[in-house]
Amino acid sequence: MDIFVIQGGSRLSGTVRVSGAKNAALPLMAASLLADGPVEIAGAPRLRDISTLGKVLGHMGATVERVGEGENGRETVRIDPQTVERAEAPYDLVKTMRASVLVLGPLVARHGKARISLPGGCAIGARPIDQHLKGLELMGAKTALLEGYVEVEAGAGRLSGATVCFDMKTVTGTENLMMAATLARGTTVLSNAAHEPEVCALARALRAMGADIEGEGTDKIVVRGVPALRGIRHEVMPDRIEASTLLLAGAITGGDVTVEGADPSAMDAVLTKLAESGAEVFAAPGSVRVRREGPIRSVNVETSPYPGFPTDVQAQFMAYMCLGDGFSIVRETIFENRFMHVAELRRMGARIDVSGNTAAVKGVPTLSGAPLMATDLRASASLVLAGLAAKGATEVLRIYHLDRGYEALENKLSSLGARISRVKE
Ligand code: EPU
Fold it and tell me: Which residue ranges form the domains of the chain, and what is each CATH number?
């Protein structure tokens, strides 16, 4: 297993390019199942989660290939869904990535049925998929749980439009039902829909495929079913979570980092908090620069659905707040178990008290390097940030978690002057 060895204390500076967004590329890959021709996804990041979903699609019989590797490892994934013969996602693959559930809506919409392994809980929370299933049922599907698999069958071979009101904002739930509705008979109204930029990007891609969708980015998405969708080529939006992580790497080390390709309009909540914390933020179309010279001001953060502060940046921001000049309250409202980085940060000298979904962080002048255990994707990133700012050496174990969602993070950080290397344990 690979580990990161980080020699802390270097001030990061320079320019780095953001990758395509994992959480935008995954739904686009699933959406390819709806098409009558090949779908090309340009700028897909080279990540384990992307290849896992590629394997899920391959298992169904789709032809999945990576074509035309561009600069910075950016490449195009080409999926031909015309050879799909099995509407099934097996346990072995789903267990490693719950986003595989995104194939459910497209499969039922296009093939009238789907059988996918029910994702179990994961490190950050129970993460049920009841909202996905409720929506499909309202659209006329029958669902059953058999031997750990959810089996879904569209009534009369095709889903029917319905009004679905989500009990909570769910990103992949909204994406799944939006995809399912594109080929349904009649009109579907999704209310209390998620507003995330990745949901909007998916709506735009589906529209380019011929879908009739409006209202993305608001509470109410309306989808009028069409008989068929065509293949397209679509560019993946920049990864706002990776961009935020890189900017925080600049801020935590008192550095000056520009992330090229980032879309500041999708990062408002994080950029606002960075500015409140005393960092200077320069946002321009297609790039964001963050520079910090003075002390880190402790600020409070509460995660919430977009446009609120993203849960996927909570752990990284908490690492930053560990070096703040006062008290910071970090509240996690999306997932019930997303504080696993706290115990590891404490091992570096951080002072954090947790009560329920709230962490009180008392800033300390320095953190000290230590061997650390990564527990999930974003928690791993927070440990890397802490290691970059700490005195001495930090080892981050189990970085396979990090590799699920960050493309060669060590290379990007090294290019900014970080002393970080990947070694075999
Ligand atoms: N929820 C339910 N029932 C459902 C669906 C969701 O109770 O049927 C709950 C969840 O348990 C959670 C809340 O609703 O408490 C929100 O979950 P959501 O469905 O929005 O999460 P997700 O769609 O499974 C996506 C991202 C996550 C990101 C969350 C929140 C993808 C592939 N994943 O997950 O990304 O944290 O939205 O923004 O888009 C990551 O990249 O590290 C990651 C975990």
Answer: 2-14+238-424 (3.65.10.10), 25-235 (3.65.10.10)
